[in-house]
Amino acid sequence: MKNFKYILSGSFLALLVSCQTAAPVSKVSNENTPYQNLGHNGKIYAAFYQQRAAEYEALCLQAYNIAKLRLDEALAQKSDKPLAIVSDIDETFLDNSYYAVERSKMGKDYDQKTWEEWTAKGIATPLTGSQVFYQYAASKGIQVFYVTNRAEQERAGTLKNLKKYNYPLQSDANLILRSKESSKENRRKDIARNYNIVLLLGDNLADFADIFDKKSEADRSAAVKSVAKDFGKKFIIIPNVGYGDWESSFYQYKYDYTQQQKDSMMYNVVKATP
Questions:
Q1: pTM for this predicted structure
Q2: Which residues have a Cβ under 8 Å from the Cβ of 253 and sit 6 or more positions away?
Q3: pLDDT for 167-210, tens place per residue?
Q4: Which residue in 20, 25, 69, 109 has its CB near the most CB atoms, within 10 A?
Q5: Cβ pair 110, 219 in contact under 8 A
Q6: How far apart are CA 202 and CA 180, in angstroms?
Q7: Pairing of strands 125-126, 143-151
C-alpha cells in the first residue's frame, strides 16, 4: 500500500510537470506559424509605402488633379444650387499612418481610446497635393464639407489639425462628424438639400454612396462595377492599403476575431497562382 502511494504520487507529479510544460510547446508552435504577426507587420508595411513611396505621392496628385478638372467642368455649367464638395478626412487628405505604426510596434490593434488620443494632438500630416486642391475649391466659392466618422468628442483635435495645415473651413457646420450611425448617407442627403454636390472624395467606398455600406466583398465588387462611370468623374478615391471596409468585409464585419485568427484567415485566402 505504501509503494502504491509512492507510485500514485509519482504519477501525479509527472502529470503536473507535463501540464506545466505543455503551454510553452504550444506557444513555440504558434510563433513558428508562417503567418505570425501578419496583420501587425502588414500595417507597418502599408505605412512604409504611404510614408515613403513617391508612387503614393503620384497617386495622390493624380487624384487631386482629376478632382480639379472635374471642379472646373462643374463651374462652367449652370446650377440651381450653390456648388459643394463632400470629403472624408482620414487617409483622404490627412495621413494617420503614424498611429498605425505606433500600435503595431506595440503589438496592439486600433482602439477608440488611443485613436482619440492621437486625433486630439492634431498632428496628422497632409497628403501630397491635398492642400492645393481644397484651397482652390474654396477660392472658387465652392463649399467644402468634411463628412467624417470621427466622433463628436474629436472635434477640437480635428479643427486643430485642419487649421494647422490651412485646410479651408467656411463655417463650423462644414465639419460634420459622426453622431450615431456610421453610414454617411443621411449626412450627404442633408447637404444635398441646399447644395449641388459635384464631387465626393474618400478612401473608402462608403464615402461615396450607401450601396457600399456594410456589404460583403462580392457585393462591394458588384457595386463598384455598377457605378463604374462615376469613378474619376464624381467619385475621387485615394488609395488606402492600411485599413478600411475592404478589410472589414473580409471578416464579415465581425470584430471579435483574435489577431492570430485574422492572420490565419488572411494567409489562407491569398493566392500564389491565378
A1: 0.87
A2: 214
A3: 999 999 999 999 889 999 999 999 999 999 999 999 999 999 99
A4: 109
A5: no
A6: 20
A7: unpaired
Taking the C-alpha atoms of residue 157 and residue 207, their distance in angstroms, rounded to an integer, is: 21
- Tell me the residue type at 168: P
- Residue 146 has φ and ψ, to the nearest 5°, of -100, 110
- For residue 151, report the phi and psi dihedrals to the nearest 5 degrees: -80, 160
Q: How many CA atoms are closer than 13 Å to the CA of 227, on its beta-carbon side?
A: 18
**CATH number 2.60.40.1840 is the correct assignment for the domain at 37-265:** no
Calculate ∠ Cα 184-185-187, nearest 5°.
Answer: 70
Residue 213 identity (one-letter amino acid): D
Domain boundaries, the chain: 37-265
User: What is the three-class DSSP state of 240?
Assistant: coil
Q: Which residues contact 257 (CB under 8 A, 6 or more apart)?
A: 251, 265
Residue range 80-111, pLDDT digits in tens = 999 999 999 999 999 999 999 999 999 999 99
Give me the helices (H) in 182-230, please.
Answer: 185-192, 217-226
| Residue-wise DSSP of 68-134 | HHHHHHHHTS--SS-EEEEE--BTTTEE-HHHHHHHHHTT----HHHHHHHHHH--PEEPTTHHHHH
